[in-house]
Amino acid sequence: MKKFTGIALLLLAAGLNGFGQTAPKPYGVLPTQGQLNWQETGMYCIIHYGVDTYTNKEWGFGDEDPKIFNPSQFSALQIVAAAKAGGFKGVVVVAKHHDGFCIWPTKTTEHNITKSPYKNGKGDMLKEYREACDKLGMKLGVYCSPWDRNNPNYGTAEYVKTYRAQLKELYTNYGPLFISWHDGANGGDGYYGGKREVRKIDRSTYYGWDTTWAITRKLQPNAVLFGDVGPDVRWVGNEEGHAGETCWATYTPHAPDEGKTPANGYVKDYEGTEGTRNGKYWMPAECDVSLRPGWFYHKTQDEGVKSPYTLLDLYYKSVGRGAALDLGLSPDQRGIINEIDVKSLTEFGNLLKQTFAVNLAKGATLTASNVRGGNKAKFGPQFLVDDNRYSYWATDDKVTTPTLTIDLHSPKTFNVIRLRENIKLGQRIEAVAVDAYLNGKWEQIGEATSIGGNRLIRLTQNITASKLRLRVTASPVAIALSDFGIYKEPVHLTAPKVSRNKKGEVSIITEAPVSAIRYTLDGHEPTSSSPVYTKPFVLNEGGVVKARSFEGKGQQSESAYASFGYAKTDWKVLDATAPNEDWGRAENAFDENTGSLYSTLKKESAQFPQQISVDLGKEQKIKAFGYLPRQDKQADGIVDSYVFYISNDGKTWEKVASGEFSNIKSNPIEQPVALKQEVSARYFKFEATHVIAGNGITVAELSVY
């Protein structure tokens, strides 16, 4: 009897190793449940609305009077609904920005909404956002700036207590929260209760992040923590909205200085773009970018709202690379999302629905070169086309480069491929290729690296085929692939590109030939009756150029937009701090080439201020200046504090503007400097009083409007 029982156990064990094959062993570090929830969220919006909305700044100084904060139509419901229309699943509310003004009735500072006229000092915008999210089925997150340019105690241990108390109020009164958002802006000049000075901190230790994060873990255990160093979600390292072509969900952050502990605002942020293969932590990337050029509303940027197809491109480069897309929304001075922004969001949401409404691979016959233990019922490829994100096709441990054949049974036309891994078992696959059976043979049509929680391969052209093949070309362990889909993005024309040379000649081009390019110079959208572009034209006085591609019967692209100042044909350098000739001459500051630089960078220390003065060739009416920083993702020489002067004789100078270029390192767009009143001058001087890094200044382009 004992002998028979032993034989039975052996047979049972053999069955478990065959048809009852165990799941693959997890690979590397793994996500928490909160991180899985975040991955499934995919897209959310961060909302910047506060006193800066009324001062036309990106970063307030901290001395703003709360009385200026008085929206006429504030509607959290309208703002959250605009995000939902775009397909976003949550919002992160900026409860306090660097200026220190709190949009909830906090007990920690007098610099808050109760001192504003809004609802006679009885308002609580966080409560209104909470109610709006609950009504619309959206998730809520909060951002409370660690830096506070208003608080007199900033830089001391006392302020850290205040900051933690603010977080406790937010976590206790406005949950449940899906994310607690923290950025890296730490220390610098500010109001600080009237001191008006520079406060410096040890970014590695000042906030005691481990202790601060423990508050989140206790009060909002299901919320992920976002920051330069996570610990749950990392910053991607740019504010352009895209992750690296290869983007790992694992990451090991490093401090800029050897031996120091990395922290928010104190990390080699460029490493976050791709992450770290086999990194120490599961810490996927968030890609943050604003719908407008800036994070706060500026009326002058109404024409700069990103188009639906621009947002779709960012979607592929963020969510489609395993990251999340965090899109900045900027309510206007009424306290609502502007109609221009709502239109773009809604059209983007519709594009997403159209593209991913139908998985054309459903109903296909899937044949795998290997199935784990031969157990198709448990690990077969049929799980790739179900609606479960965590059911999966797995292979035997020794099979790391399997193939999958997809028989669609009839020709299907598609241009997007979606792949996902069951990330509960880690990020395993390192590279794949996709083939289509065309003209009697297999032809590769796409490839990708770092699959992870979501990978979208956007093809450059439509493919029509009835049979496909997926090849896993690199993986250190057995695969656990959970999703295979093919989709059809709607047909559209590519918007043209508008540029101008130093002679003032405007050129409009398209990537592929079209029937016609039509344009306007009066701010209106181009229509089929607008002038046809045939050759470059001169725009000496500056203005707004809008252009569209037209094809066939009624088919048209989105509108392209460019704003130009005065033409720089007759501009000359009057005087300038000696340039570094290895980098570029002073004339590069106005050559209409954003890739060239005027640079004074040197290896040895440099004196500030540094300047360049320009002869416009004749007296001009001036309403604004523009400074474009270098566009090569380097920080050396980027000016963050400035003065503009004017002159009519090139000798006697009058200061007409001064200030700081806030957030210019992370968001290196052209920095507009609007004058309080129009002036007339033949000469102007741009003076740099401080730079982000380096011994000298760099200028990609200066403009006069």
Automatic annotation (TrEMBL):
Signal peptide limits: 1-22
Single GO molecular function: alpha-L-fucosidase activity
PROSITE patterns referenced in this protein's UniProt entry, alphabetically: FA58C_3
Keywords in alphabetical order: Glycosidase, Hydrolase, Signal
Protein's organism: Mucilaginibacter rubeus
GO CC annotations, alphabetized: lysosome
Superkingdom field: Bacteria
PANTHER family, sorted: ALPHA-L-FUCOSIDASE, ALPHA-L-FUCOSIDASE-RELATED
Enzyme Commission number(s) of this protein: 3.2.1.51
Enzyme type, top EC level: hydrolase
The protein, known as: alpha-L-fucosidase
GO biological process per UniProt: fucose metabolic process; glycoside catabolic process
Family per similarity comment: Belongs to the glycosyl hydrolase 29 family.
Domain F5/8 type C span(s) in chain numbering: 559-705
Presence of the UniProt keyword Calcium in the record: no
